[in-house]
Specification:
The protein has 280 residues and is α+β, with helices and mostly antiparallel strands. It has 11 helices and 16 strands. It has a two-stranded antiparallel sheet. β15 (249-250) and β16 (257-258) form a beta hairpin. The termini are far apart.
Amino acid sequence: MKTHIESVHKGNKPHKCSICDYATTQKRHLKRHILSVHEGKKPHKCSICDYSTSQKNHLKIHFESVHEGKKSIKSKCSICDLTLSSKSYLKKHIDSVHDGKKPHECLFCDYSSSHSTHLKRHIESVHEGRKPYKCSYCDYFASHKPGLKTHIESVHEGNKPYKCTYCDYSASQKQTLNRHIGSVHEGLKPYKCSLCDYSSSREHRLKTHIRSIHEGNKPHKCPVCDYNTSCKSHLKKHIEAVHEGKKPHKCSKCDYSSSYKCDLKKHLEAVHDWKNKIKN
């Protein structure tokens, strides 16, 4: 009780991390933080999947929620219909998703996250170029195993169980489907540019827009022509479309194919009256 009062109500957290701004009331919590966050030690491993954690109780929560499907009614979000496996996960969900709290900021760019592990992964993949998990089917690399697993299931196995009720779009993750419905069918684009009238459904696209359009930062240059872009993925698409002639996006109604998904969408709307059919 004394520890609770000092930490929660008085904000007394004398044990501070020398690497980041983490602070705690107990020395053992600081030791565990350093081992898990900064040294990457996660000795408690799941016997069914590749999940690992620094805390034994987190492994128990993971096993019950993911593999046994147990979710406490107390950890249901009152804002959306998401149910979390613990109160602490619920708090993190509300802080990051609904309150927009992202205290973990990148020292190299304007990226910020609600989770320290996400920031660590961002730095490793974006700034250090560490993507050790290679796809066995294509040249895709991922910075973490779950990302590779999602890629294989959605791209190579076609496993997209979340289907849109308005069109034939399907996704491998529920959050991706929700984002699609919000941006495409409901026109929700909450991230607005302060310099022009551009808006986007995703924060990273707005940041890319500002860097490339308003700051002129386009470091990724084409080796064949004078095209340059702010995104490495855009350069890859450019080379495949313009110089290699790849057209992976095929129309299901006719023999039309396109290098870009947006062009296929325009074709469907113009030629096959796709937009009006969705509305009706």
